[in-house]
Specification:
Layout (H helix, E strand, L loop, with lengths): L25 E7 L4 E7 L8 E2 L3 E8 L2 E5 L2 E5 L4 E4 L5 E4 L6 E8 L7 E2 L1
């Protein structure tokens, strides 16, 4: 019997390496290929990501808490189990104005090759 390497790769949030960012948040890289980047972000109450511009399309999937999402001139409170589309090159940020920790997944496609601009 020939033993093959497993094709199933898993990563848990607790085991993913923290990524240094200019944001006031815990950012952990879950998946990173040339086609897509998946990041887990946790923001404590009263904290927020700095407003920034990402050079690729992104989607935010809210896992816990309520996110205040600003994209361009619009702002909305987004509840758990909701997905938000964030188009490339539009200023945006996510804030936690609630009393509980906010955690969400960011999916960027394709993986950014240009720099994110902090405003």
């Amino acid at each position: 019997m020939v033993r093959r390497a497993t094709m199933i790769k898993t990563t848990t949030v607790d085991n993913a390496s923290a990524k240094e960012t200019p944001h006031d948040a815990l950012v952990r890289m879950l998946h990173n290929t040339e086609h897509v980047q998946v990041v887990h972000i946790s923001i404590e109450p009263g904290k927020a990501l700095r407003k920034h511009i990402t050079p690729v399309d992104a989607a935010f999937f809210i896992l816990e808490g309520i996110a205040t999402v600003e994209i361009g001139d619009e702002s909305a409170d987004i509840e758990t189990n909701s997905l938000v589309d964030s188009p490339a090159n539009i200023p945006h940020r996510v804030s936690n104005n609630g009393k509980e920790r906010l955690s969400f997944i960011v999916i960027k496609t394709p993986r950014p090759t240009g720099k994110t601009v902090i405003l």
